[in-house]
From TrEMBL:
The keyword Transmembrane helix applies. It is found in: Membrane. It is a multi-pass membrane protein. InterPro entries: MFS_dom, MFS_sugar_transport-like, MFS_trans_sf. Residues 102-530 form the Major facilitator superfamily (MFS) profile domain. It comes from Daphnia magna. This is Major facilitator superfamily (MFS) profile domain-containing protein. It comes from the Eukaryota. The keyword Cell membrane does not apply.
Length: 596
């Protein structure tokens, strides 16, 4: 038997001063490293325009213009998108050191390119055409172009794979060791590898450091988010979820400014890593989740945190407030000694019963869709044309209007319809790009609409998933769904690398189709608005068990009577002994029931 933290919250405050301090100054700032480290690699490995280096023409004491050098030494070739342009990886086989030949070239400067002259691969390296001398990337430093141009894409793929593995492992750490120690484990690993990135002497070591950073990136945001959701009352979850995503969008905007100001990739790596060492000071202020402590029957530790919460929220709890909880748990046969073994849970617990398995499969598919499209559109922003730093900044700014839409709809329409509408809207916008490939303005508008839709879904889904999964497997459930979601971003860089211009729309078609399908699947999930968080596997199985196709189109759920809802849950638990052994009822203090 575990204690439902939602029944205690009305006595200590569902969103009092304690929760506000933790959310605004601990949990929300704790999400910033994820945004920085998830996307700073795009700018560390950006590829500027380049051509073959011609030492005899590019010498500093020569006054040859860039146009002359290009015309004299670089052949015209057809790119993979079907357009003609100057080659980046080949040059004319000419002797540019002979003055007579240079004189002839100068006299014929208006018509130097010729298909009759043999070409060879670049012989002396490459000349990168940066907009300023301060811009350096791993591509320019280690010349990752031509036969090595796949290396940056490979780095993104391996970064995604490491995040997939790390998300799986850290989900178990979060649910077994606790939210607090898990956060500092992530932070330590991420800080070590992120700082080491700046001092990598070779591409191989740089890649190894990026894999180490990617190992922690998804998890280091998930833990503060879960802790924030678990700490507040049901009516404040939407508020906290929106705040978390506003902070994430602002983080992307801030990253755009940082990488624009710091153009050297080594300094950029330090600028996006060193400030986060300050989060180790959270060791003295970051609490363990009382909800997780209660789910582990560590009542003594939970009581300390809850009483501290009540004190800061200016609420008074009777001296024997927790005695009746302890008594009932002891009578139910639960082990009160934290030193003894506690039940362990794993991924199989999510699919042992039919309703939990169905909900897990749907949430996982939608998570795959949302993550793939969100990351895919973020990667696509620099390809829109213009300044890549400005494009990335605008991509972050485009997310901000979504929260004005979500703030009223999530608490009025419910989670299901908000998620459905967002995904279908974004999916239709992505599909429509097929008809407007050559119209930059229309493509930009559709891109923003797609970003709006997927950003909205990116807000609703983690909140809804955290409300569907029971406390005892919440971290595992979210991690598994996140792992499935990260499969998409692994393949998106490969599709972008291999595709031609016409094929570049194919990912948008695939993502649009997935979004429409995911939006329709969202309607089959039970509504979680105004519902208490399931604590045990038994409660998780019963939640939404009777939600059939007749309820799929229902919208705008009313606020239920909490007391009657609690009685209904207890009654259904008792009636469904085939799902799990029934729980012993708790004697809830009158102060709690009156608040409900």
């Amino acid at each position: 038997m575990t204690i439902d933290f939602d029944l205690i919250l009305p006595d200590v405050g569902e969103y009092g001063n304690y929760q506000k301090l933790m959310v605004w100054f601990v949990f929300l700032p704790g999400m910033i490293p994820c945004g920085f480290h998830a996307y700073n690699q795009l700018f560390m490995a950006t590829q500027p325009k380049f051509r073959c280096l011609i030492p005899d023409l590019d010498l500093a004491d020569r006054n040859f213009t860039e146009e002359f050098i290009r015309n004299a030494s670089i052949p015209f070739v057809m790119n993979k998108d079907g357009r003609w342009n100057f080659s980046s990886c080949s040059m004319y086989s000419r002797n540019y050191s002979v003055e007579e030949d240079l004189t002839v070239l100068l006299q014929a400067s208006g018509n130097l390119s010729s298909s009759d002259i043999p070409t060879v691969p670049c012989q002396a390296g490459w000349k990168f055409q940066n907009n300023d001398q301060e811009t350096t990337t791993v591509v320019t430093e280690w010349e990752l172009v031509c036969d090595k141009d796949f290396y940056p894409t490979m780095a993104l793929v391996l970064f995604g794979i490491s995040g997939l593995i790390g998300n799986w492992i850290f989900g178990y750490i979060q649910d077994s060791m606790g939210r607090r120690p898990a956060f500092f484990i992530y932070l330590l690993i991420e800080s070590i590898f992120a700082i080491a990135t700046a001092f990598a002497p070779t591409f191989g070591i740089w890649l190894a450091c990026r894999i180490g950073v990617g190992f922690t990136v998804p998890a280091i945001m998930g833990t503060p988010f879960v802790m924030a959701i678990e700490l507040v009352g049901p009516s404040w979850r939407t508020h906290v979820a929106l705040l978390a995503n506003v902070v994430y969008s602002c983080t992307l905007c801030l990253l755009g400014v940082v990488v624009w100001l710091v153009r050297d990739w080594r300094q950029m790596s330090l600028a996006t890593s060193l400030p986060f060492l300050a989060f180790f000071f959270y060791w003295w202020v970051l609490p363990e989740s009382p909800r997780w402590l209660l789910s582990q029957n560590r009542l003594a530790e939970a009581e300390v945190e809850i009483r501290k919460m009540a004190r800061i929220n200016k609420r008074s709890l009777p001296a024997g407030y927790f005695n009746q909880f302890k008594t009932n748990v002891e009578e139910s046969g639960d082990d009160m000694d934290s030193s003894r073994s506690q039940p362990t849970y794993g991924a199989l617990d999510l699919v042992k019963t039919p309703n939990m398995a169905r909900k897990t499969a749907i949430v996982t598919f939608i998570w795959f869709t949302v993550t793939s499209v969100y990351v895919g559109l973020s990667y696509y922003a620099p390809a829109l044309g213009g300044n890549e730093y400005l494009n990335f900044l605008l991509a972050g700014v485009a997310e901000l209007p979504t929260y004005f839409f979500l703030w009223p709809t999530m608490d009025r329409w419910g989670r299901r319809w908000t998620l459905c509408f967002s995904m279908i809207l974004g999916g239709v916008a992505c599909l429509a790009t097929l008809s407007f490939q050559d119209d930059y303005v229309v493509m930009l508008v559709l891109y923003c609409v797609g970003k709006f839709g997927i950003s909205s879904a990116f807000v609703v889904l983690p909140l809804m998933a955290s409300e569907l999964y029971p406390t005892v497997v919440r971290g595992i459930g979210i991690s598994i769904s996140g792992v499935a979601g990260m499969l998409g971003p692994i393949f998106i860089p490969l599709i972008n690398y291999l595709g031609t211009e016409s094929l570049m729309v194919l990912p948008l078609m695939i993502m649009g189709g997935l979004m429409v399908a995911g939006g329709l699947c969202a309607l089959t999930l039970p509504e979680t608005l105004h519902q208490h968080l399931p604590q045990t596997l038994e409660e998780g199985e019963l939640f939404g068990k009777d939600f059939g196709y007749k309820q799929w189109l229902t919208c705008c759920p009313p606020r239920p009577n909490r007391r009657e809802h609690g009685k209904d849950v207890a009654q259904r638990l008792a009636e469904n002994s085939d799902v799990a052994k029934p729980l012993v009822s708790l004697t809830i203090p009158s102060s709690v029931t009156s608040a409900i």
